[in-house]
Amino acid sequence: MSHERSVGGTGVTASGPEVVIVANPVSGQGRGRGVGRRLAERLARRGVAAELHWTSGPGHAEELARRAVALGAATVAVCGGDGTVQEAVRALAGNGTRLALVPSGRCNDFAQALGLGRGLEAAARRIIEPGWRRVDLARVGRSYFCTVAAVGFDAVVSRFVEEMSLPLRGLPAYLYGVLRALIDYRPFEASLTWDQGQYQGPIFLAASANSPTYGGGIPVAPQARCDDGLLEVCLVRPLSRLKVLRFLPTVIRGRHGRVPEVSFLRTRRLTVETERPMEIWADGEPVTTTPQTIEAASGALKIATDG
After folding, report:
1. Which one of 13, 49, 53, 180 is at 20 to 30 Å from 272 when CA atoms are compared?
2. Percent helix, strand and coil across the chain, each to the nearest 5
3. Domain 145-299 grouped into CATH 2.60.200.40
């Protein structure tokens, strides 16, 4: 039987449901609400004991996932985008509860990186069938993240897109944010230290990736993988505004490694220090400020698979 709680519900019932659905009703401009309800109905028709819970604000997905784990739920299904998923994995990292992704946000890069099927039928099969595998997460400060953590220009763009509440989604929102943020942006002094080396000097941005894409499919680190125990770091040294505009098409095609100001490196740990505290954004959310160490968390997440 499927239970639905209103926005702001306190958590999972003491009966310990087999499946807990954590749905963000505002993700994807409201798409998460419809997806959550339809998924609960579909599971109920198939005899799966599931409870549906709505998130009510920042941090609530993590709270609901923790309650589900404590009460022994086998699977937590998350209906939302990468930001909602990031909250849930803080509770699921390192334990035996499966995460079932139900992509329904503005950006769904983690599901894309894992090659998971889209749509409710594919999501229902992932939940009902027992298949799973362990994949990597990354950790910065006290927060886990799934896709990419960035400091510098991309963090500024993410802040702009968040505060403007644009009606755009994914790549169009990112590109609009780039054009607006570029007007006032200046490179900054930083020190980066990784397993095999160090860089000190001015940078435009640094992106540390557990998966290849962010922002709705932008391949900032094309060689990043969620199962190799490593981070792929994209370091971009200062560029002129004109060169940034020329640079964008190469980023979208994943060919920016040809640009002289761009370097890639692979590491388990990356320490970032900057001339002043700067925001680090991960999975489209602000998570902390510099200085920080970012590290791979190998096999930290049990994920429901297709087939």
Report:
1. 180
2. 30, 35, 35
3. yes
